[in-house]
Task: structure prediction
Amino acid sequence: MKRIISGLTSTAKLTLGNYLGAIKHLLDAQEDKDIEIYMFLADLHAITLPIFPETLKNNIEEQLKTYLACGIDPKKVKLFKQSEIKGHADFFYFLTTISNEGQLKRMTQFKDKSLKNKNKTEQVPLGLLVYPILMAADILIYNADAVIVGADQKQHLELTRDLAQRLNKKFNLNFNIPEPMIPKTGAKIMALKTPTKKMSKSDSDVNETIFLLDSPEIIRNKIKTCLTDSENKVYYEPESKPGISNLLVIYSLIKNITIEEAENLLKDLNYASFKNEVAEAIVNLLTPIQERYKNLNKLDIKVALEYNREVIQETANDSLLKLKKGFGIK
Result:
């Protein structure tokens, strides 16, 4: 079986971008009997930058419930919390010994986030620098064949591949060199008011983002006020029409059609009517998810997390033991 892994950081509420860029593809993959899926909530990654403990606790519970409400089936997907599986931090430490500072400082996300963070604190947290090594540990400890990532995470996966190759060469090990699984369309859903940047669950402006638990009224208002242009013609052209193109991508993914088919369906509409069509598509997608979410409780989360815990822990233990032996530590 081909083993794939996916994880989302528990820093904020899940977004439409998270759903269309990752969760939707996992829902398709979980029906494939030739694929084994490890899906985790990256709560250790969430403390890379300061976060209130109560906020983190609430985020973890909400995101796990949202996964289940979206249709992630613990009987088909090995769902877990990163911090509850022993070995991630150990694996991470071993990887730090074969990593180098220069490569980490060249990471685009580190450069961007550290630049922003300097305006708030005197020092940049070390966790921000070594974050990609923990990501590599999350992947290699399950010896994944592939990783579902957005285009912005591809650089981090390249580091994972480099570290796996170093381990194999230096210690005569046989860890898989994971391949990226980047959806051809929808890997990056853009922000609503600034469609030149990615839609982010951590954006300071909530109007840039559609959250999976947004009410229909909020969704319609956000789409109504999102950036378009003055041409009043619906067609796909990311460079000159980033706002309209972003909405076309969203619509096409929700409807499971190509962008060209979406263009043909919507090309005769003015912008107001076009936005209304997109908004209703989003509302119709999210309403049943929100209904299922309301009916879930802490017991449902507990049952889901315990379903495959032993198998997940055994997999992690085997990989960590192999790593330790490679280093000469038994």
